Amino acid sequence: MEKWDLYDKNRKPLFRKHQRGKKLNAGEYHIVVQIWTVNSEGKILLTLRDSSKKDYPNKWENSGGSVLSGETSREGALRELEEETGIVAKEKDLMLLGTYREPHNFFDYYLLHHDIECIDLRLQVGETVDAKWVTLDELEKMIEDESLAIPIGKTYLRFKERIQEEVRDIF
User: Fold this and answer.
1) Domain 3-170 CATH superfamily
2) Which label site among 83, 98, 167, 171 has the fewest CB atoms less than 10 Å from its CB?
3) In the structure, what pLDDT confidence band is assigned to residue 171 with cuts at 50, 70 and 90?
């Protein structure tokens, strides 16, 4: 049973927990993280969502998910990254790209520079079934043809300049 800490619209703790799957009340928020992993070739790591997933089955995405009760945003990001890909990183390795508030969620977007071959990834059963590295041009084509999960594409477009800047800095 997954539980989340709740926050108000200003991201101040409400000192209450929420069980995943139950409806959030007005004025209640939880934290969700996304991690954009970029390698030394300037490519972005994507994973393919399992066909059994309720939302966006068989769509490509980056690593991410809800922060669990008791975790900081960065701790949740590192846990999600390791669970979904097997990549182990440190908090200092995560660069915060930004935060965005939506109804009931604060989204924290991180960037991680990391090199790993797809064959060396450890994909999470029931979550991810494949992985690949894509160029920024390929990523934008995936947004257009909707092979990338729609919310992930929206995130990329929101932080496109920051992500492209970081990729350019690699070279």
Assistant:
1) Nucleoside Triphosphate Pyrophosphohydrolase (3.90.79.10)
2) 171
3) low
